[in-house]
Amino acid sequence: MKTKYIATAIIAMTLVASCKNETKTVETEAVKEVEKKVEKVEEEVVTKRVKMALESKSDSKATGSVVFEESNGTVKMIASINGLSPGTHAIHIHAKADCSSADGKSTGGHWNPTAQPHGAWGAAEGYHKGDIGNFEADAKGNGAKEFSTDEWCIGCGDEKKDILGKAIIVHAGTDDLTSQPSGAAGKRVSCGGIIM
Questions:
Q1: What topology does CATH give the domain 48-194?
Q2: Given the DSSP bridges, would you call strands 166-171 and 143-149 parallel, antiparallel or unpaired?
Q3: Is 8's pLDDT higher than 80?
């Protein structure tokens, strides 16, 4: 009789241990699944960021800063410029991060890796990847421009998308969005290289 009780107790303890092991396995699998989801979310929201100063060119007083942030496949640009003449000004990405010349022309022409005509961003006739557009400077000469696109990247190595190694140029005048090859926007009054 005593042996029967011992056998029953051993079976019961084995069942309890087995259930605990199954629970641990289920818990472990659930934890692993949650960790995978967290890793995926972290990968998706990783943000790359480049902040740069704009220096004056062509005897202007235009300076400022530009921030580029990439998250979830979209690059957002936020530019803040001061020391401008009041009115409309063009802002573009140019081919080289070289602001060494006094007139800003060391940056080359507009960044145009797809060999398209100059135009308004998204135009069916074509546009340069550097054709950001225009913004307004107020009576005190302060202006700002925000822009977002999935056609740029920061440091991805794709020559048709990667903005690193290029430059931001602010122009004295308005981009007419049609004149070739640069929109007749006038002198380059501010420049900054897009570098890490």
A1: Immunoglobulin-like (2.60.40)
A2: unpaired
A3: no
